[in-house]
Design a protein that fits this description.
With 104 residues, this protein is mainly alpha-helical. The longest helix is centred in the last third of the chain and has 34 residues.
């Protein structure tokens, strides 16, 4: 019996949720996480006799978690692009500089 390990998927998805605050760049971790889970599930469906049913259920849960992380990061990434595209650059830089001065 082969074992499906979900550890990598959970780690990548969790870190991607933490990185979504950085303009949705956690998508760079969430996408590979989802693709790895999808690949492992396809492999388990091709050769069901080689995998334990509990491992397959755990991988489905990990894939769902990765999909949620990917969705949140994708939405925040699109929002960040939209806000940068619709905001005047001078206004954006003035706001950025005022916030930097506030923290110094």
């Amino acid at each position: 019996m082969k074992k499906l390990s979900t550890t990598l998927i959970y780690i990548l998805s969790s870190v991607s949720l933490l990185c979504c605050c950085f303009a949705g760049l956690g998508i760079l971790l969430a996408l590979p996480s989802f693709l790895i889970a999808n690949k492992k599930l396809k492999e388990a469906h091709e050769f069901p006799e080689e995998y334990d049913i509990d491992d397959v259920k755990a991988m489905k849960t990990a894939k769902t978690f990765a999909l949620v992380a990917l969705s949140i990061n994708g939405l925040y990434f699109v929002y960040s692009i939209y806000s940068l595209a619709t905001t005047d650059w001078d206004t954006f830089m003035n706001e950025f500089n005022s916030q930097m001065e506030k923290y110094q």
